[in-house]
Amino acid sequence: MSDVYRVSQDWARHAHVDAEKYAALYDAAASDPTGFWLDQAQRLDWIVPPTVADQSSFDEADFGVRWFADGRLNVAANCLDRHLASRGNDVALIWEPDAPEEEPKRFTYLELFQHVCRFANVLKAEGVAKGDRVTIYMPMIPEAAFAVLACARIGAIHSVVFGGFSPDALAGRIEDCDSRLVVTADCGRRGGKTIPLKANVDAAAERAPSLKRVIVVKATGADVPMTGRDVWYHEAAAQVSADCPAEPMDAEDPLFILYTSGSTGKPKGVLHSSGGYLLWASLTHHWCFDYRPGDVWWCAADIGWVTGHSYILYGPLANGATTLMYEGLPNWPDASRIWQVVDRHKVHTIFTAPTALRALMKEGDAFVAKTDRSSLKLLGTVGEPINPEAWRWYNDVVGEGRCPIVDTWWQTETGGAMIAPMPGATDLKPGSATKPLPGVHPQLVDETGKVLDGAVSGNLCITRSWPGQMRTVWGDHARFFQTYFTTYPGKYFTGDGCRRDEDGYYWITGRVDDVINVSGHRMGTAEVESALVLHAKVAEAAVVGMPHDVKGQGIYAYVTLNAGEAASEELRAELRQWVRTEIGPIATPDAIQFAPGLPKTRSGKIMRRILRKIAEGDVSSLGDTSTLADPSVVDDLVANRVG
Ligand code: WT7
């Protein structure tokens, strides 16, 4: 039996949604989807209101995801213009710098609007038009928000690439979507360290012939060489006006691309469109976090990930919120930093990842206890399963039992939260993302696709479309269908394993495909393998996840060297560095085991199940190894396990 934390009377009374209303919303979305969604869509400001809602199909014959197709709107106008009359002088964006001794910045809705319009005019002056792709490779500074919203304003499709990715990873993402222009900064700062963003763009440009223009924001003032391709943002901004009409867009016009790792091949460009995505971001922000005017909302993600897109920018701004953007790390200069930021800005809700909580928990409660935190009313988590110990620490130590924990399960592909509590409606169980939001229809199936009812474990599918669903893989619609809709025909397969308990609560158990979740970031094992085999001394590599105290999962790599190459500590360090350079620091292997051979079937397929078990240290139950081409490799692997 797991603990149940009951919704407090106070929350039940005051929240937007209580238990009765949740049930009514869930039923309405299920029984009259068209009426329900056209009604919900009214929370957005449409130029032409839609008269149709869901026109999606998960079947091959008429496959496609389409919502509100005859509606027209502009996403940036929904996030800015429509708030000007009622809350133009309210703070829209608070920016907290990396170093605590520096001054934060605040932008009212009017100021943010003006910055975005000016940025949009700079893009236009560079020839960017509706439908063009703009790559944004930025630190967590206000200009990153301006750039994203400026794209939305003129109908350009943004592709934000996390500032921690390497020049190679950046180049691949620029080329894949044929992006002409990159927005970057001279350098970024995080935890007192400098990240050479402009230099990385220069290196990427050599491998990305589509790139013609780089707009450079002066962030740190570092001395960076400018080429004929580069334009300083502040110089370009001085040449344009702050008056820029919002481009009317069809609901289904693309809003952004965000690259994410899958189980095979290179990262996929997940495409989200305008109307459905914005509705889902806004509605889930409202439902799950019970946002109220005047609350200070802090999503402590990076805008390079979907969490930053949906819950630093689009959801909160569509709801007229005050959203906080933090440049730095949760534990720098020390483990109090996050709670000091809460106190400094009187934050009401913080939304972060279990990995950050585990890292802070390890440092001890004193770093938390010495801060006030009385402004907090709700605590959110996302990115990976939260272990009950971290959940309780968040609840008891950080929230002092006053703040519901909202654990949101979702994915880059889903646009916003899918399975998550509503604080006034849902009793909580530590470690469970609880129940589906209205309009979300989860289903558990076994390996053969048989639908499993009741309290059971299985693979998590979603049977009906929802407004925030991705629309395609950029440039490869067939891959979209193939990746998500062929494992279990007619259903969207999430890639996650999941248990449903006797109360209908969902417990995500982690990925069941070759994707690992490192510190809440998705990593394709195939990507790390490809990087490793690019090294001249490596013949073959196989990568699996391993349990990790803080990161959730770590990266365990089995490496077979070319004949004549000797394993050594130096080579191990070199390979780690190699992967960092090829992909980025988040892909650094935690353990590398030199393996003379990998366990393969007679047809040459690597048996990852065995590799996973060894990496987990679970060598007593390796299962049947008799089908291997050479069963003796397993003994060697077990004997030379690392860690
Ligand atoms: C994968 C998606 C959602 C934004 C951040 C990650 C895992 C995400 C939870 C949660 C258990 C979770 C799943 C999912 N995941 N949230 N609350 N509980 N697992 O987005 O990079 O697209 O990764 O993260 O495995 O499939 P992403």
UniProtKB/TrEMBL annotation:
Domain AMP-binding enzyme C-terminal: 527-605
Catalytic function, reaction form: acetate + ATP + CoA = acetyl-CoA + AMP + diphosphate
Required cofactor(s): Mg(2+)
Alphabetical list of Pfam families matching this protein: ACAS_N, AMP-binding, AMP-binding_C
Keyword Zinc: no
GO molecular function: acetate-CoA ligase activity
Family assignment from sequence similarity: Belongs to the ATP-dependent AMP-binding enzyme family.
Protein name as catalogued: Acetyl-coenzyme A synthetase
Underlying gene: acs
